[in-house]
């Protein structure tokens, strides 16, 4: 029989997956509770960028959140359809689309900031500042190692929380 100690490094991928799953579940629950149903954590990444700097080019947002422009377009479509953002061609270059918050997007700011603050407080509870820095360094190294061992392709991006992936999962379970 296969026995592994709970501290075994072979469990690292499982532990990272469990953390990601738990955070996703928490964020979805809190978005629904805040009266923002139908949004996914990736939407919060986009809105967070715009809360820091409104009227941002799509390609800059994609770069900041680590997603392909095509994936960002799918996520932005849903945010735009729900009235949180608007997109318009740049005055300098009509090929560049700029994304801006709408009044509804601005109204959601307080909820998103509260959810994010609560998540981070819970996530880092009991960690010293040095432990936080050390863990972040180690996780970046692990991420770099994964990037070095994989070949980039269209299927590399984790799109589990994009609208099409979410609806695809729902269809499979019906």
What would your notes on this structure say?
The chain is globular, with a radius of gyration of 18 Å. It is 61% helix and 7% strand. With 174 residues, the chain is mainly alpha-helical. It has a three-stranded antiparallel sheet. The relative contact order is 0.12. α1 packs antiparallel against α6 (109-123).
Task: Compile the SSE list and pairings.
Blueprint: H1 12-33, H2 41-52, E1 56-57, H3 58-65, H4 69-81, E2 85-89, E3 97-101, H5 103-107, H6 109-123, H7 129-149, H8 163-173
Antiparallel strand pairs: 1-3, 2-3
Helix pairs in contact: 1-6, 2-3, 3-4
Amount of beta strand: 5-15%
Task: Specify Rg, calculated over alpha carbons.
Answer: 18 Å
Chain-averaged pLDDT: 86
**Helix- and strand-based class?**
mainly alpha
How many β-strands, per DSSP? 3
Tell me the distance between the termini.
36 Å
Question: Per the principal axes of the C-alpha atoms, what is the gross shape?
Answer: globular
What is the helix fraction of residues, given as a range?
Answer: 55-70%
Major sheet: arrangement of strands:
1-3-2
Secondary-structure element series: HHEHHEEHHHH
Number of helices, counting only DSSP H or I runs of 4 residues or more: 8
Can you summarize the main beta sheet?
A: 3 strands, antiparallel
Low-confidence stretches: 162-174
